[in-house]
């Protein structure tokens, strides 16, 4: 008891006041006292009492029993009837309204307290049951399941709306007779369903489960999966109550049948395909052998071509080396002899240009024989030639008419392009060694 709120419906003021005092002493909160059923219903809608005490013998047009029925349908409080009489007709009618209990006056305080506590306790239990039923209904609806509960002893059962709807019947149209529902199962599936049920009720299987064809109202057949569990046995361990669900799996079954049909066709096609693959494999092997033979011939031809190209490249390097040597030994010698002659300024300028061009040609010829020389610019090739000839950076700067810093920059660039950036090799030695090796 924790201060529950109580509404009193009684048209005798003195008796009603006594009830208010008694309830207050017991720790309850009286939220109102009314004399008629109409007033009780209106006040209950606004205040939502936990319990209503109603006098069965109200003198108003609406009796206490009728008032109780209206209250329960609208506000659903715990209802306890008060009466000074005990005719069985009145009490039976009171029970039909859904009242939790009744008190026959006069009543002791202990009986009064016990009755109220029991009524409030039953109301809380019924509230939780309703909430659980609502959750179950939502879960079944979300899963598209029908629910059934069968009394095996009387062969009757409760079948919810979804059980009827999935067979195209109106809710309640098939009634509660279990045999009526059994007769809808396809004759070919009856033995399987009976065997599954017997296996579960005998304790051999932990659950009843069967997928069978069930006839609809239109005469069509639907595939229904039944799952259930025995929830009650009698004292002799005989099964009494079985509860479970129904699920329409017609679409899945039809899809499964189509899949099986497709699987059979696939096996047939696979056999034909395997035969074609074997024939194709033989042809491919023959083609592969021919290709391998041709590949070997191509490899031999390629090796011969590489040797030929290598010889041509070697001959090219030798020719370029001879050209460079001829330029230095013959052409430049002639230039030096001409410098000893008396020449005009214009002729000297032309002679300088000629000598510079001959140096560039000779440098490019030598540079070709250096690995990675194709990455070098013309100026870098000329610098390489002078480095190989033993000139210092300052001397090269004078020849090229640039600063020593610029020559140093070019030297770093040449080392990177020739792959010597992280090497300790002397650039001049590397150039001499490379060209000497190539000339051999």
Structure overview:
With 440 residues, the protein is an alpha/beta fold. The chain folds into 3 domains: 5-139, Rossmann fold; 145-248, PAS domain (Beta-Lactamase); 334-439, Arc Repressor Mutant, subunit A, CATH 1.10.10.10. It is 59% helix and 15% strand. The chain has helices at 13-25, 37-47, 64-74, 88-96, 109-142, 161-165, 178-182, 190-201, 250-340, 345-368, 378-388, 393-400, 404-417, 427-439; strands at 5-9, 29-34, 51-55, 78-83, 101-104, 145-151, 156-159, 208-215, 221-233, 239-248. Strands 2-1-3-4-5 form a 5-stranded parallel beta sheet, with helices on both faces. Strand 8 and strand 9 (221-233) form a beta hairpin. Helix 2 (37-47) runs parallel beside helix 3 (64-74) and helix 12 crosses helix 13 (404-417).
